[in-house]
Amino acid sequence: MFITEIFKSIQGEGTRAGLPCIFVRLTGCNLRCTWCDTAYAFHGGQKVSVDEVMERVESLNRRPDGNAGGVSLVELTGGEPLLQEEIYPLAERLLAAGYTVMIETGGERFIGRLLKEVIKIVDVKCPD
User: Fold this and answer.
1) Count of other CB atoms within 10 angstroms of residue 103
2) Which of 34, 42, 69, 104 is the most buried (most CB within 10 A)?
3) What is the mean pLDDT of residues 41-46?
4) CA of 62: how far to CAs of 87, 93, 100, 125, in Å?
5) Helix or strand (DSSP H, E) at 70
6) Nearest to 43 by CA among 76, 4, 77
7) CB 55 within 8 A of CB 110
8) pLDDT tens digit string along 30-39?
9) How far apart (Å, rounded) are the C-alpha atoms in residues 110 and 122?
10) Which phi and psi angles does 122 have, rounded to 5°?
11) C-alpha dihedral over 7, 53, 19, 15, to 10 degrees?
12) Considering the entire predicted model, what is its pTM?
C-alpha cells in the first residue's frame, strides 16, 4: 500500500476530539476538491506492507520504557483510503490488536466491506 505519513497527534474532529490518536494517511485520491487541505497526499507516498504499518503504529504507541502508551485510537485517512485494497486487512489487524479504528472517506466509495466495528466517518463530497 502507499502511505503518505503515519503520525501521532490529537484528534481534532468529531466525538473523539481531544483524544490522542495515531493517523495513517494513505496516498491517492480520485477527487480534486477545490477546498482539499491534503492535496500533498494525491501522489507519491511510500510503498509499505500492512505489517510495516502495524509496526509503525505499535512503535508510536510505545512509551520510552517500552510499554504500550495508551493510544488506542487509530484513524485511517487520506487522500481516499478506500482506493487501496490493503485498507481492509489493515483495519482488521488494527481491530484484532485492540485499537479503535476510524476511517475517513469522501463517501464516493462503497463502505460495506469494512467490518461493522470500524467507525466510518463519511465526509460526502458534493460536485463543485
Assistant:
1) 23
2) 104
3) 88
4) 23, 18, 16, 36
5) none
6) 4
7) no
8) 888 777 777 7
9) 11
10) -105, 105
11) 120
12) 0.91
> Residue 104 corresponds to which cell in the numbers above?
475517513
User: What residues form DSSP beta bridges with 26?
Assistant: 3
Q: Which residue has the cell 503504529?
A: 57
- Whether the per-residue pLDDT at 20 is higher than 90: the answer is yes
What does the alpha-carbon distance between residue 120 and residue 110 come to, in Å, rounded to a whole number? 11
pLDDT for the residue 65:
74
pLDDT tens per residue across span 44-103: 999 999 999 999 999 999 877 767 778 999 999 988 999 999 999 999 999 999 999 999
